[in-house]
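dumping these here so i dont lose them again. two proteins, back to back, each one seq then structure tokens. dont judge the mess
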Amino acid sequence: MENIQVKINPTPGSSYPILIGENLLDNPYELIKNYTRANRFLVVTNEKVFSLYGSTFDTDFAEVIVLPDGEEYKNIEVLGLIIDKALKLKIERKDAIIALGGGVIGDMAGFAAAIYQRGIDYIQVPTTLLAQVDSSVGGKVAVNHKLSKNVIGSFYQPKLVIADTNTLNTLDDRQFKTGLSEVLKYAFIEKSCKADVDYHFFEFLETHRNEIFSKNHEVLKKLIKICCLLKSSVVNKDEKEKGLRAILNFGHTYAHALEIVTDYRYFTHGEAVSIGMKIIFDLALETGTINRDYYNRATKLLSDYNLVTDFQIKLDEELFYDAMKSDKKVSDGNINFVMPVGFKEVAFKNNIDKKYILSGI
């Protein structure tokens, strides 16, 4: 089992471990009790995940709430169901919430923990690749609004993250590739993460495609570990996205706008991200921030992993642009982009002409 420490500075009490390995959910409460004082738990999950792991988590000292599955349900109304359940169960400040599922469950359960009684402990148990490599780590918790993605939320760190790679065996091809979009994101931003070590992650993905798609657990553990180390490096330096942490939004400015204009129903989050990354590489080539060699190598990686890279549907350019302008990263009316500027390196750009921004729509 791998144990990665997220060390948030200078926020006291915000450091926590990420446990990565197989069979970690055989007896999860044995792990959890080492990291929280709680002895009662509210487990937040969805129907599919509950059918797979519910019996493990539904015990004498835990109650379960099962939510509908899908990004379209990540909203303030469904969040209210968690709060209602906590109140009915008389969950106290010394108790804890467990997020058992993918990114939607993790975000909503974490946000509920952040606001319930002004904050109680929560534990992330991510069961999708996207959640294990990205959304379960870093303490971003939120719900969507019809006008903006993740605009209602907070920064609130978990006490523990348990990533059991066995859960990836139950993912279908679409959900697995959804997670791979966030995986490739880390390959494209690695140098800018300011980690102490160069993990050569881009090259790792170029040479381990077959093992990744066959779900070789040793390779997946290494992949998840590298993503978590890179994200931890960023979050440790900038917990609340005052600067550096914004690089984790590579491809997301387009992605979030795409999710908004399609009412969070047409694309998975990862599909929107892979489309967003392809467009931002096109934009970077057109505006001269990267050369053709890197463009070809980067887009080949997207293609090799068979990720979605085009819109597939006709969009209204003005509605799309308005959605981009509602993004949290807009500053003084300018859309801030995380742009590739070299091999595995990105920088912030906010002076891009509208015609270039919409050229890939």
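---- next one ----
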Amino acid sequence: MRQAGSRTRRARPARRRSRSRFRTLLLPALVVVALAVALLDPEIGVRRWWRLERDLGEATARIEALRAGVAALAAERDALRADDFAIERAIREDLGLARPGEILVGTEPRGRALAGVR
């Protein structure tokens, strides 16, 4: 008569081999699936990362341009604070005003200059 233990012993090596094959194939299969999802999914994958990198570069360039503008405005502010005549000149230029006896000479955009001539 066979004992129950001997039957189990014979079946275990076959199961162990199939489980070990399954485990050795599982990790590469999961890696392939993860790579496929990362490359093909536009919302969570590599495309999204590239898009975010591009947006970050554009935002960084905008920030630098704005910082340069702020520096130019700060320099203009300092010049206006230092010279009282500069304030008056800036106001007259912005409003298009002249002192008595002064003649304004300037260029207007072509559309505005022709609009007054009819």
